[in-house]
Each structure stands twice: as structure tokens, then as C-alpha cells.
């Protein structure tokens, strides 16, 4: 106590001397002493930076909706013009009634406080300007040492504050200082700044604070813990009344107004904004955005600084998340794999925009939370890699066959490249990227239905393991791995296939035996849809930093990584699973390409596919260990499954997501098969094991220019032309809006010129004569894909690879 009294007396004396020095000429001993003190005081450092205080950062979706707010301090800045006069009058009455009269330090107040303290009554002696200085120094501290320095109870700190206060008053207006103080002050119960306090305690803005509310908030500043309204309402009311009495004494209100305000009940309406990703409706995408900022060196020198920037700079973070896509995908995931399913299986999905890498959606069937033992709760984002808050990945099954197709096409192999593909086979002679020779590899198909003589068309449709094993050997195992890496794929643990010892010895790469994330697979498929243009996955488009008043625009990082023809050829091949293959039941009423995937022993199931507008990848499995807890004899929600394949759960999730996400979007066509890869026909007989017929084309129909152009013809004439060309015509009952005469042909699928096997079905759509044709096919439930009867059909069941 004696130390405090002496300190306060010293500060009071210094303040008096300073005023004398600044106000009086140097006359006599007192003048000389005062002038000497003032001279030393004015030589002290005085430049105090006053950046905006820490405030909430907000993450927005692509439509401007709020995904989450993230902060260390619940604060929202507000201009002095938007603060009720009740509030400014109340804070000055209780904290600094002479604020607009003094020059940063209230000498009479300081001396009065010193005298009262000597009499045993403690009283604060800091002006609002001094309090603002102290708060600025506290908030600017970046280490415990700096924080202790700003809070130390010493004469040196008081003198520093006095010096800064004097300088601040010369540089800032009174209104600017008062605004800064009301925005930086702590008002108890986690509310920083007057706007957040008004919203937190009364759910009104600072501009609308009534007298009794303003007096309540103003009374909290001196002892925010002692007067916390949540825990000490009676003490808070008493303090409020003290403030009202002080307002009467200063003349800002009448005694009658004070009496009326004292009659008001406290009536708190406590409301704290949700902080962080846990309460968000899109928690895993939110977490991905946080990880992007904290892990990216563009946003700060180290992770600690980047995390602090995120939580204090009042950032407005604009992201790529499309609400429609996210909503459709989350609904599909939750429908097929409920969050709290007793089997503890999980579904995770990522949706990416081709040509930009924008992440349109990120969903999984878990609640976001730290308690992994709680059913249906996890903080692991299974949709992404481990360095972005994800897992170490999952084997992706036959979705990897797409990379083998691309590698084969890049090597110049035509679509007609064929192999006798029996139910089982042995492949030898493969060479790893490090030059090592791999042992012979024996493998089999899931069943006899996809065995036979296959080329790229029928092999992709049937997802024949034995065909793709031979195609990988022909294209080159290393070329296949390098193709996957060109498309941005890598192991979820961050290592490249060509640098990982286990991957280098992996003969079965084409069957998806590498652990990867759905985001990387979706992005690789998006590269096919974009004609070989790879874009790094991107979640953030722009960051507005309100502290520094700067904007960071983040452009897509894209490169042409494979030849456009190779990408388009792969895309065409990936339409085949929808045309009577493993994805026959998964059409989305518009052109699409995709691939099912089921790992060995049904440990995990996948589906990856795309349209020109978006690509998605879906994983379903058990995060406890897919091999230990496979997708066999399992009940998920209210459905029981003997075996889960890629088309059993992941496929429908993908289908429902894409249908919902594309609603309202224009129908766009996928690229046609490039002519350089030759015929798009299947082998004459997919079950013919005769190698001599392996390279023969399936039908003379493909040599006559393919599907004839019958658009504009009357129905009967069009049907006759198609039948004469060797095809079967299927006239749809759904008419299209088209400028062609009513009843004539508006469109056919496949397009005119497409090469199909003899007897294949061509869908014919008639015009309603009302306007322009809707590109790509009809609306409704009809799958927008031709039905090809030739070749084996797997009835929608995915392969086991």
C-alpha cells in the first residue's frame, strides 16, 4: 500500500511539474525545476503505434454466406458516429469526466487521487487517453515479456503512459481517441469493444443502447471480473447506479432520468457468437481453410504468427465453397452413411471445379469435434491429406485405372489396344521407376463376368483387372505412376509414388493399392475434364485484412500437364462405365464420366467422376482400419449390406450430389473421342479368348462415318437412316425445346459421327418446336447415355480389385 501511495504521489508531482513547465514561463526555482523535468520527459520516446485492436475474422462461402467466425477476442469495430451518446456520456462520467478538457493527463484528477489514496481510499488516476495507451501496448505485445512490461505496476510504466498520452493527444483528435478506447476496452464476459458488449449483453448495436444499458456496460470497465453480469448481477446493478449518479454529477443527465434508469431490470440477453469451426455447418471445409492459412508461408513467417494473424486481424476470408454443392453433397453423405452409425463407417467426399481447382464442397459423415471416442465425432478431415488436417489416406481401388488409360494414350496406344483378359492371369517383366525389376504378379477378376477379349473401350466398361494389369505393363508401370503425379496425385502422407520405397515395388498400382485422399483423386479427375489443365486445389480466393487495410487476391495455380487429346481420350473412355458398365445405374441426366473402385477384400469403396463443370470423389470405409473392418456383412444406418461395392454406396452419393449440385446449371458436353486414337468400337466379342482377333474392330458400322446426322429429319426417316447404318433407334418420349420443326429430330445421343458397334442403340429426341435446343439431352429421370447391349454387363455392381 505504501509503495502504491508513493508511486501515485510521484506521478502526481511529475504531472504537476509538467503542467507548470508547459503552461508557465521559466521564472524562479520552481520554473527551472519544472522546465528541467519537462525537458527530460519530452525527450522520452513518444511514437506509439495504434493499430486496430484484435478483432473477429470471418470465413465466407462463394455466395457471401458466413461459414464461421474465428477469434481470440470477440470484438467488432465501430465508428464513434455509430455509438449511442448514452454510451459516450456514461464512459466519460465514470472514467474521465474532463476528457474533452485536458491534454492527455488530468493533473487535478491525478493529484486528487493521490490525496484520497493517502487518506485510505484508492482511486484510479488514469485518463481515458492513458487507459487507451495501456490497452494498445497490451494488445501489441507479442511475447510474455512484452506483456509483463505493459502491465507492470511501476512509476516507469506510468511515466511512459503519460508521455505517450501527451504525444497521442497532439496527433489524434479527442473523438478518435475515444473511439479507439471504446473499441479496445474489455467489457467482461468475453466481450471486447463496445459493439460486441452491446450485442453480447443486450443483443442490440452500440448505436441503440438505452441509458440503463449504456450505464451497465460503462460500469464494467474498471473491474470486468468483479462486475461480470453473468455471475454477479446484484453487484453489476449497484455499479450501474454509481455510473448513473456520476452522469447526474457531470450534467449529462437529470436526476429524474437517472432514477428512471435505476428502476430498469438488468434483463440480460447473453449472446456469444460461435467461435471456430466446431459450431459451423461446414466444419471440415472450415478446418481446411484454417489449415491452408496456418500452413502457407505466404501468410506469415511461421505457423504461430499465421495463427495469430488469422485470429486477430479481422480478416474477411472469401472461399470457393458453393452452398448448393455443399448442401447436396452433405445430404447425400448423411443419407447413405449416417453420422452415428453403429458400424462406425465413414463417407467422405470432395468436389472440385475443373480449370480452376476451386473446392466447391467438402463433406463427411461425422460431426466435427475432438473426442474420437464419441460415436460419430472426429476432428480428422478424411477428405484431404494429412498436412491439411486429414488422415494418411485410403486405398482407392479401380479409380486408379483412369491413370493407366491416360498413360497408355500418352504412349501412343490406340483405343483398340486389346488383350485376352481371362478371369486370372500373371504379369511379369514390369520395371519400377528406380530401374528395379519387379517379381511376377498374379491377379484375378472379381468374377467371370468381366473376363474375355478386351480393348480399352470394353475393358473400361467391365473394369477388368486382368486387362488393366496387362495395359499397365504395356504402358509402363513407371509411366503410369508418373502420369498420376502429373495429375497432382500423391500419397495422403505427402510422399510421391516415385519416391516412396513401398510404392516403387507396387505391381498393382493400376488397381489402386495406394493410400490417397478423395480431394486429390477428385482433382486428378478434374484435370481430365479440363482437357489436361491441372490446377492446384484452392479453397480461398481473397483475404481482406482489416488491420493493415490490404487485400490478398489468390489466383488459381494452373498448368497444362498432359496433352489435351490424352485428357479427352481418357474422358471418353471414362464414359463407358455409364454405358452398360459398372456405373450403368448412376447416370445424372447429363454427360458424365467416372469410375467405380472397390479395394481387395472390400476394405474400402470409391466412386470418382466428373462433368465439364465439376469433379467429385467419394470414399466409404472404416477409419479404424479398412482391412480389419471391411465393408462386408455390415449394417449402415437401416440398410444391411453383404458386400459394399463402389456402385453400392459411393456411387449413389456421387449421383445424388451431382444431380443436386448441377440443378439450374446449363448442360455442357464432354469432349468427343479424339480421332488420333482410332476406332471407339469394342472387340467383336468381349468373351472371345482368341488373341488373333484382339485388334480387329467390332463392326463395319464404325467404318462408315459412325452415327448418321439425322437432326431435322422426320421421325420415320431418321429411324430408317439409323437402322440402315446398322444401329437400333430408341425414340424418347421426352421432347426437347428446339428450333427444329415440331416432331422432327432435335438431337441424338451419341452425337452424329460417333463410332459404335453394330446393333448399338442410338437415342433419338424429337423437337417440341418451341425454341432453342437444350444442349446435352433432356431433363427428367432418363439417363443421358446410350445403351450398348454388346459386351458384358455387371448390373451396376462395382468390381473388386
Descriptive overview:
There is one protein chain. Residues 1-11, 17-44, 120-124, 686-704 and 772-801 have low confidence and may be disordered. The strands form 10 sheets. A 5-stranded mixed sheet has the order 2-1-5-17-18. Strands 7-6-22-21-20 form a 5-stranded antiparallel sheet, with helices on both faces. The chain has a 3-stranded mixed sheet with strand order 25-27-26, covered by helices on one side. The protein is of the alpha+beta class. It is 34% helix and 14% strand. Helix 16 packs across helix 19. The longest helix has 22 residues, at 2-23. Strand 20 and strand 21 form a beta hairpin. The chain is built from 24 helices and 27 strands. The radius of gyration is 36 Å and the shape is elongated.
Tell me the helix content.
Answer: 25-40%
Major sheet: 5 strands, mixed
Amino-to-carboxy terminus distance: 80 Å
User: Which residues sit in consecutive blocks of at least 5 with pLDDT less than 50?
Assistant: 1-11, 17-44, 120-124, 686-704, 772-801
Radius of gyration: 36 Å
Characteristic terms for this protein:
24 helices, 5-stranded mixed β-sheet, alpha+beta, disordered N terminus, 14% strand, 5-stranded antiparallel β-sheet
